[in-house]
Amino acid sequence: MRNALDNPFSPGSDIVPEVWAGRTQQLNDWRDVLRPRRMAGLPERGRTILGEPGLGKSSLVRRIADDARARGDWVTPQLRIPSGADPLKLVASAVLDLADQAGLAARREKRIRELLARVESVEASGFALTLRDREGPEPYRVLADILVEVGRTARHQNRVALIHIDEVQNITNENVLSQLLIALGDAIGHEDDVELPGGLVAKRTLPLAVYLTGLPDFEDRAGAHKGATFARRFQTTTLTGIDDEDLNAALRQFVFDGWEVPTEEGGTARVRMEQNAADTVVDLCRGEPFLFQLAGEKAWYAGSGETITLEQVRAGWRGAESEAGAHVERIVSRLPQRERDFLQAMADLPAERRRFSIIAAEAGFAKATDAGPTAQRLDTIRRIIKRGSKYSFQHRAVEAYMTTDWPSID
């Protein structure tokens, strides 16, 4: 009954998992705020969704994109930026696809034809266009202009055009990053004069929605180099782990009704999960979406019957312990040495002694004030710790890895 073809759990594949947990606030923001306001021509910033690996940033925006497609909106594919790639070329290619969806290629105006030709040249040469003498606007201006035309057509057809750019932390060229952010910001900030009944004229923005996703380092870089312009045009959310209540809610169908799967005879059956098995999945994953999917996948494969038992969850997790540990180790190991030292010192102290001055001294800082920027980054940028009169961990998987025998289940 349970096999690889009907397993609903999908760790680390960047797709929208069938067993969805949490992120209600971000989904409601798209459905109730961002999309309605852009459709109404009201100003609304783009969205930047950041977080440590495994928190489901890409899957979240893919689910938003699926919702947009279901509503008839125009959506780019997930534009994943590889390290060292020219993002202007990738975005230009996606914008040309949006232009095709909008039917711009079929329009005969000379202005539109010339604009499409310029975008095609950006697609071919990317940022290199700005490195030599050349007549005409720079790539960022070309991208902004074509996005404006796409937005105008979307407005006439009562649609939204959604652009999703992933792995934005890989844009290491500051000039390219500046051009890209300005192009996107200019497009979503563009206003047209719209004639209202009675001869009145009002300004309206275009139905364009932009999502940027990546690691927390991006906001630090973008904010430092672009300052108020970036903050004014993009609203940043740094994801943390998912609450246990939301994880339990995601497994409720297994516990009460069962998860429907096809049978070899052409009918359907239901796979259920014991309540203590579901509780153990939630406990093991420590709020991490990737680990939640991993624990569910391994438990599914640990048996073939119609009930996922506690022992099957435990047996499955034993086979996932090394992967779970490596996942958290990657999060910690990519931190700068000072931040790792601060975390280790904090983890080595009992909870009642986790005060700033004590942690700073244990971490080897000459003065407590020297540790201030490090603690602030671990809190506000990375969301791994939480500052206060006593310090605590926000990232529960990092805490478990550094302070207990987790991920060992025995």
Question: What does this molecule look like?
Answer:
- With 410 residues, this protein is of the alpha/beta class.
- The protein folds into three domains: 24-238, Rossmann fold (3-Layer(aba) Sandwich), CATH 3.40.50.300; 244-319, no CATH class; 328-403, Arc Repressor Mutant, subunit A (Orthogonal Bundle).
- It is 51% helix and 13% strand.
- It is built from 16 helices and 13 strands.
- The protein has helices spanning 24-39, 57-70, 87-102, 110-125, 139-156, 174-189, 217-233, 244-256, 275-285, 289-301, 310-318, 321-333, 337-348, 356-362, 372-381, 396-403, and strands at 46-50, 74-75, 79-80, 161-166, 191-195, 201-205, 208-214, 234-238, 259-262, 268-273, 307-308, 385-386, 392-393.
- The strands form four sheets. Strands 1, 2, 3, 4, 7 and 8 form a six-stranded parallel β-sheet that branches. Strands 9-10-11 form a three-stranded mixed β-sheet. A two-stranded antiparallel sheet has the order 5-6.
What is CATH's topology name of the largest domain? Rossmann fold
Tell me the total number of β-strands. 13
Q: Can you identify the CATH superfamily of the largest domain?
A: P-loop containing nucleotide triphosphate hydrolases
Please give the largest β-sheet: 6 strands, parallel
- The structural domain count equals 3
Supply Rg.
Answer: 24 Å
Proportion of beta-strand residues: 5-15%
